[in-house]
TrEMBL record:
GO annotations of cellular component type: acetolactate synthase complex
Keyword Transferase tagged: yes
Gene3D superfamilies linked: 3.40.50.970, TPP-binding domain (3.40.50.1220)
Gene name tied to this protein: iolD
Organism whose genome encodes this protein: Tabrizicola piscis
Domain Thiamine pyrophosphate enzyme central: 216-349
Name of the protein in its database record: 3D-(3,5/4)-trihydroxycyclohexane-1,2-dione acylhydrolase (Decyclizing)
Protein keywords: Hydrolase, Thiamine pyrophosphate, Transferase
Domain Thiamine pyrophosphate enzyme TPP-binding per the UniProt entry, residue ranges: 412-561
Molecular-function annotations in GO: 3D-(3,5/4)-trihydroxycyclohexane-1,2-dione hydrolase activity; acetolactate synthase activity; flavin adenine dinucleotide binding; magnesium ion binding; thiamine pyrophosphate binding
Length: 608
């Protein structure tokens, strides 16, 4: 057996550099790194030697550079990924939140945090977490609940098994998710005679499991027996690459479609069978269909509570649930009739079995009425009042074309965009599995790296911007252009509305209602400008529209700041969402909200 002597870090980097995606490109496109003790000497040296075959990029914050990797994987439909490395201690634990984002959204990211010394000779080293009862524990054990595969590399030969296992998980369509390879810092620098064949290039294919014939026949029978079926398209449609298959299936059998946050953009909004979104952030026409559906056909969806209105929106008596999903865990939820398999393959097989079976037309007039409502809600304000978030979204909508890709993650914008944004196919990216504040700017950067030909637009509130904005400077440095629309409502406007809706007093959400000694007046335009971005402080909706048009030709990020009214919500659509309201309170508003809460819970579908 021919061998080559390398350090463990050198061997890891060399192996990663020759792992290929299905299109022949690198599966791990590059490595985000903030160096510190624990990775600078070992991995840092190895990455420098391979900088021409496996790029290394420098971030400003471990969490947000990992968000770039998460967004990149999502924008690539899980067919490509990135790695992220940090020092031990806070550098590693900073990435745990991003790992949770990847885990909930079932996305492949390779986390390589530095770890303590395998030898334990210098213990305790700087930043080491010491467990008084377990000497094997380090800070990196925090990753265990939020990754699909965890391994600690404490011997150089460990990577011979750990690396293939890692990519097996990252390319598994059912169990896909983040991986953590905690890399002991002395092990990184230790040499070993590795088999040369270990570094042979390998292509990783995403398999397409076919459904069980019995489940398939049962699914076809359920659809044939239905009178008013409704398709709920989830993120699994996009991960499967089943967008055209879904469109063909819906049109062949005349079944209306609604899209979850993860599934939005699977179908162009102008398709007549596209009825928007269901649930808490649902369209009026979509929720009407959901209430009438006798068979709900979930395709690649987890049926999160926003999609289901906390299991109240699919309310037709005797309605049934058919769940097409790559993972049995999801397919069996809520006593659904399961069809476990790849979404594209499953839809093709069901359609073939159904033949020319078609259903009656849905209420197209109701759909047209809804989009008229959307245009009204998103129209520019007629007076000098501050615009709502919906009106800002309208300004962005009117100045973009089919190349636009809108994204967000938290606060008011996910709800406004889900219910009101008219998305082209592939033109929507929402991190609403974990709804992580601070994902937005880093995520926009990752999307642009994956989709350089799309006009990427990041919609963000002032609260999320304050959480994490540092990768704006990284995007400027790397020349990665995207547009940030920052709506300043002076606090956490979304949660302030929820607080008031559940009977609470305005408290600790808007800056004006929070404890302070000095008044707060943050100049977001000046802040973004200090990081090198193009900046426009818009006073009106018309100025937002002009700035949006100009941003399309920019070569660095553009930030458009506008003050907004924190009071209005989406202005249309939606349904009940379960947020527990106190059973007893001195506030009459809380007691009234409790009555509404109890009424909502009585309408829930409780079968689990």
């Amino acid at each position: 057996m021919t061998t080559i002597r390398l350090t463990a870090a050198q061997a890891m980097v060399r192996w990663l550099s020759v792992q290929q995606a299905e299109d022949g490109s690198r599966f791990i496109e590059g490595v985000w790194a903030i160096f510190g003790h624990g990775n600078v000497a070992g991995l840092g040296e190895a990455l420098h030697a391979h900088k021409d075959t496996l790029p290394t990029w420098r971030g400003h914050n471990e969490q947000t550079m990992a968000h770039v990797a998460v967004a990149y994987a999502k924008a690539n439909g899980r067919r490509k990924a990135m790695a992220v490395t940090s020092s031990i201690g806070p550098g590693a634990t900073n990435m745990v939140t991003a790992a949770a984002v990847a885990h909930v959204n079932r996305l492949p990211v390779l986390f390589i945090p530095g770890d303590v010394f395998a030898s334990r000779a210098p213990d305790p080293v700087l930043q080491q977490i010491e467990d008084f009862d377990d000497a094997t524990v380090s800070a990196n054990d925090c990753f265990r609940p939020v990754v699909r595969y965890f391994d600690r590399i404490s011997r150089p030969e460990h990577i011979l098994t750990a690396l293939p296992r890692a990519l097996r998980v990252m390319t598994d369509p059912a169990n896909c998710g983040p991986v953590c390879l905690a890399f002991c810092q002395d092990t990184q620098a230790e040499a070993y005679d590795y088999p040369v064949e270990f570094f042979t290039p390998r292509t990783w294919f995403i398999r397409r499991p076919e459904p069980d014939q019995r489940e398939l026949e049962a699914a076809v029978a359920a659809i044939r027996a239905a009178k008013a079926p409704l398709i709920v398209a989830g993120g699994g449609v996009l991960y499967s690459g089943a967008e055209q298959t879904l469109l063909s299936f819906a049109k062949t059998h005349n079944i209306p479609v609604v899209e979850t946050q993860s599934g939005k953009g699977a179908m162009d909004w102008e398709e007549p069978l596209h009825f928007g979104s269901p649930g808490v952030t649902g369209t009026g026409c979509g929720n009407d269909l959901a209430a009438q559906a006798d068979l709900v056909i979930g395709v690649g969806t987890r049926f999160q509570d926003f999609t289901t209105g906390s299991w109240t929106v699919f309310s037709a008596p005797g309605r049934k649930l058919l769940s097409i999903n790559i993972h049995g865990y999801d397919a069996h939820k809520r006593a659904a009739q399961p069809l476990v398999g790849d979404a594209k393959i499953a839809l093709e097989k069901i359609s073939a079995a159904l033949g020319h079976h078609r259903f009656a037309d849905p209420d197209f007039a109701n759909r047209a009425k809804w989009f008229q409502t959307t245009d009204t809600v998103t129209a520019a304000p007629k007076g000098n009042e501050l615009p709502s978030d919906a009106q800002v979204v309208g300004a962005v909508q009117r100045t973009t074309g089919k190349d636009a890709l809108i994204m967000s993650a938290s606060g008011s914008m996910p709800g406004v965009l889900h219910v009101l944004w008219k998305a082209s196919q592939g033109g929507y990216h929402m991190e609403y599995g974990f709804s992580c504040m601070g994902y937005e700017i880093a995520g926009a950067m990752g999307i642009k790296m994956a989709k350089p030909d799309r006009h990427v637009i990041c919609m963000i509130g002032d609260g999320s911007y304050m959480m994490a904005n540092s990768e704006l400077a990284t995007a400027v440095m790397m020349g990665i252009p995207f547009t940030v629309v920052l709506t300043d409502n002076r606090g956490f406007g979304c949660i302030n509305r929820l607080q008031k809706a559940t009977g609470g007093a305005a408290f600790n959400n808007l800056l004006a209602d929070s404890y302070h000694v000095n008044p707060t007046d943050i100049d977001f335009a000046a802040h973004a400008r200090s990081m090198g971005a193009n900046v426009v402080k818009a006073a009106t909706i018309a100025e937002v529209e002009a700035a949006m048009t100009a941003s399309k030709s920019a070569t660095i990020p553009t930030v458009i700041v506008i003050d907004t009214d924190p009071a209005p919500g989406t202005g249309a659509g939606g349904t009940w969402w379960e947020v527990a309201v106190p059973e007893v309170s001195d506030r009459k508003e809380v007691n009234e909200a409790r009555k509404a809460y109890e009424a909502g819970t009585r309408a829930q579908w409780l079968v689990n």
